[in-house]
Specification:
The chain is built from no helices and ten strands. It has 142 residues and is mostly beta strands. A five-stranded mixed β-barrel has the order 1-3-4-6-5. It has a two-stranded antiparallel sheet with strand order 8-9.
Length: 142
Protein backbone atom coordinates (compact mmCIF):
# COMPACT_ATOMS: atom_id res chain seq x y z
CA UNK A 1 0.00 0.00 0.00
CA UNK A 2 1.33 3.44 -0.93
CA UNK A 3 2.42 5.72 1.89
CA UNK A 4 0.14 8.71 2.40
CA UNK A 5 1.91 12.02 1.73
CA UNK A 6 1.76 14.92 4.13
CA UNK A 7 0.93 18.17 2.35
CA UNK A 8 1.56 21.65 3.71
CA UNK A 9 -0.70 24.32 2.26
CA UNK A 10 0.33 27.90 1.57
CA UNK A 11 -1.94 30.93 1.53
CA UNK A 12 -1.98 32.91 -1.72
CA UNK A 13 -0.40 35.84 0.13
CA UNK A 14 2.61 33.73 1.17
CA UNK A 15 3.28 32.13 -2.22
CA UNK A 16 6.79 33.30 -3.10
CA UNK A 17 7.76 33.98 -6.69
CA UNK A 18 10.63 31.73 -7.74
CA UNK A 19 10.44 29.62 -4.58
CA UNK A 20 9.52 25.97 -4.19
CA UNK A 21 6.31 24.64 -5.68
CA UNK A 22 3.25 25.25 -3.51
CA UNK A 23 0.04 23.48 -2.49
CA UNK A 24 -2.99 25.77 -2.16
CA UNK A 25 -6.72 25.88 -1.53
CA UNK A 26 -8.57 28.87 -3.01
CA UNK A 27 -11.99 30.04 -4.14
CA UNK A 28 -12.59 30.45 -7.88
CA UNK A 29 -13.79 33.96 -8.75
CA UNK A 30 -13.46 33.68 -12.54
CA UNK A 31 -12.52 30.96 -15.01
CA UNK A 32 -12.03 30.19 -18.67
CA UNK A 33 -13.13 26.99 -20.34
CA UNK A 34 -10.30 24.54 -21.20
CA UNK A 35 -9.02 25.15 -24.72
CA UNK A 36 -6.09 24.24 -26.94
CA UNK A 37 -3.14 26.59 -26.42
CA UNK A 38 -2.35 28.60 -29.56
CA UNK A 39 1.39 28.42 -28.70
CA UNK A 40 1.83 24.73 -27.78
CA UNK A 41 0.17 21.35 -28.27
CA UNK A 42 -1.13 21.50 -24.65
CA UNK A 43 -4.59 22.27 -23.35
CA UNK A 44 -4.94 25.23 -20.98
CA UNK A 45 -7.44 26.70 -18.52
CA UNK A 46 -7.04 29.75 -16.31
CA UNK A 47 -8.63 30.95 -13.09
CA UNK A 48 -8.74 34.02 -10.88
CA UNK A 49 -8.42 32.90 -7.26
CA UNK A 50 -8.81 34.41 -3.80
CA UNK A 51 -8.49 33.06 -0.26
CA UNK A 52 -8.84 34.33 3.29
CA UNK A 53 -5.62 36.36 2.94
CA UNK A 54 -6.82 38.26 -0.15
CA UNK A 55 -7.11 42.01 0.31
CA UNK A 56 -10.10 44.05 -0.87
CA UNK A 57 -10.05 47.43 -2.57
CA UNK A 58 -12.29 50.36 -1.64
CA UNK A 59 -15.07 48.97 -3.88
CA UNK A 60 -14.99 45.58 -2.13
CA UNK A 61 -13.30 43.78 -5.02
CA UNK A 62 -10.89 41.04 -3.97
CA UNK A 63 -7.25 41.02 -5.03
CA UNK A 64 -6.77 37.84 -7.07
CA UNK A 65 -3.98 35.49 -8.05
CA UNK A 66 -4.06 33.79 -11.46
CA UNK A 67 -3.79 30.04 -11.83
CA UNK A 68 -2.98 28.57 -15.23
CA UNK A 69 -3.27 24.80 -15.66
CA UNK A 70 -1.72 22.93 -18.58
CA UNK A 71 -2.62 19.38 -19.57
CA UNK A 72 -2.14 16.91 -22.40
CA UNK A 73 -5.90 16.72 -23.03
CA UNK A 74 -9.18 18.44 -22.19
CA UNK A 75 -9.98 15.70 -19.64
CA UNK A 76 -6.82 16.48 -17.65
CA UNK A 77 -8.06 19.95 -16.70
CA UNK A 78 -10.54 21.24 -14.12
CA UNK A 79 -13.78 22.73 -15.41
CA UNK A 80 -15.42 25.35 -13.21
CA UNK A 81 -19.19 24.87 -13.09
CA UNK A 82 -19.90 27.93 -10.93
CA UNK A 83 -18.11 30.80 -9.29
CA UNK A 84 -17.43 30.02 -5.64
CA UNK A 85 -16.14 26.51 -6.18
CA UNK A 86 -12.99 25.67 -4.22
CA UNK A 87 -9.92 24.35 -5.99
CA UNK A 88 -7.02 22.51 -4.38
CA UNK A 89 -3.78 22.45 -6.34
CA UNK A 90 -0.63 20.46 -5.54
CA UNK A 91 2.84 21.31 -6.84
CA UNK A 92 2.16 24.63 -8.59
CA UNK A 93 5.05 26.88 -9.61
CA UNK A 94 4.85 30.54 -8.56
CA UNK A 95 5.85 33.23 -11.05
CA UNK A 96 4.58 36.50 -12.48
CA UNK A 97 2.76 37.44 -15.63
CA UNK A 98 2.19 41.06 -16.64
CA UNK A 99 3.41 42.14 -13.18
CA UNK A 100 0.91 39.96 -11.28
CA UNK A 101 1.51 36.81 -9.23
CA UNK A 102 0.60 33.67 -11.15
CA UNK A 103 0.51 30.00 -10.21
CA UNK A 104 1.24 27.47 -12.95
CA UNK A 105 0.15 23.85 -12.64
CA UNK A 106 1.37 21.44 -15.30
CA UNK A 107 -0.71 18.30 -14.80
CA UNK A 108 1.11 16.66 -17.71
CA UNK A 109 4.26 16.84 -15.57
CA UNK A 110 3.64 16.64 -11.80
CA UNK A 111 0.81 18.89 -10.61
CA UNK A 112 -2.61 17.69 -9.52
CA UNK A 113 -5.92 19.31 -8.64
CA UNK A 114 -9.25 18.68 -6.96
CA UNK A 115 -12.32 20.86 -7.32
CA UNK A 116 -15.11 21.08 -4.76
CA UNK A 117 -18.66 22.35 -5.20
CA UNK A 118 -19.60 25.10 -2.73
CA UNK A 119 -21.82 22.61 -0.85
CA UNK A 120 -19.92 19.38 -1.35
CA UNK A 121 -21.31 15.99 -0.50
CA UNK A 122 -19.71 14.65 2.65
CA UNK A 123 -18.62 11.10 3.28
CA UNK A 124 -17.43 10.18 6.78
CA UNK A 125 -17.16 13.91 7.64
CA UNK A 126 -14.74 14.49 4.77
CA UNK A 127 -15.25 16.91 1.92
CA UNK A 128 -15.28 14.96 -1.31
CA UNK A 129 -14.27 16.57 -4.59
CA UNK A 130 -16.64 16.98 -7.50
CA UNK A 131 -13.70 16.10 -9.77
CA UNK A 132 -9.95 15.60 -9.44
CA UNK A 133 -6.83 14.83 -11.44
CA UNK A 134 -4.04 12.74 -9.96
CA UNK A 135 -3.32 9.14 -9.10
CA UNK A 136 -5.96 9.24 -6.37
CA UNK A 137 -7.77 11.70 -4.17
CA UNK A 138 -6.75 11.89 -0.55
CA UNK A 139 -8.03 14.36 1.96
CA UNK A 140 -5.49 16.21 4.02
CA UNK A 141 -6.78 14.50 7.18
CA UNK A 142 -4.73 11.82 8.87
Amino acid sequence: MAKKRDYNYTTLEKCEVGGDTVNVYAVILDATYPHKSPKTDKWVVSFKLADLTSKFDSKGIAETVSLVCFGASFDDLPVCQRIGEVIRVHRAAVGTWQGQKQLTANVAFSSSWAIFAPKSFQKNDEMMPRAFYGKSFQSNRA
